[in-house]
């Protein structure tokens, strides 16, 4: 689903698609990508990270349970009560993020053009604590490799959002989880 968001966002913002393609062409070219390539593909990493922040595929995580009676502010949570953390909104709240509802990969790029690897405290698409997603590293590694191979195998094309019978696929209006069904066209450059 995250990859569906990535394709939708890159077709919705063609200038970003072009930047992704240019970086992959200049930094990797036609050879097989490796994990180390992540260190030179700053924009690709920022785009993936911003997708994970902006469109959470698991905004409520998994069900948790209070193992002891707990208090948070004025609230008391009894022992054994089921608890969900709405981490989707933590990833997009106005206190921690400037223009939180804007898709902006540049927020993860510093003034020297490098991907910012220090994770902001509100960037928690994989949850936090003991139950944090154990697949996080694998997911990010996969998203990078699949995205690079996707661009390499479509290098003569621009990927364009199909009008899809007038359905509005605007990723900004969408809910979390999965995007609505959309179609793309591969246009020969
Ligand atoms: C973009 C991809 C992924 C996202 C956004 C994601 C997100 C999450 C989130 C938010 C949780 C719940 C954390 C919590 O409630 O504290 C979770 C749990 C989990 N994830 Fe992922 N995940 C992803 C990929 C994967 C992959 C690739 C694997 C395995 C190969 C995986 C395996 C698991 C497992 C087993 C749990 C349950 C952990 C537990 O119950 O303690 N996830 N994931």
TrEMBL record:
Entry-linked PANTHER family: CYTOCHROME P450 508A4-RELATED
Record family assignment: Belongs to the cytochrome P450 family.
Protein name: Cytochrome P450
Keywords for this protein: Heme, Iron, Metal-binding, Monooxygenase, Oxidoreductase
InterPro entries cross-referenced by the UniProt entry: Cyt_P450, Cyt_P450_CS, Cyt_P450_E_grp-I, Cyt_P450_sf, Cytochrome_P450_fam2
Cofactors, names only: heme
Nuclease listed as a keyword: no
Pfam families referenced in this protein's UniProt entry, alphabetically: p450
Keyword match Heme: yes
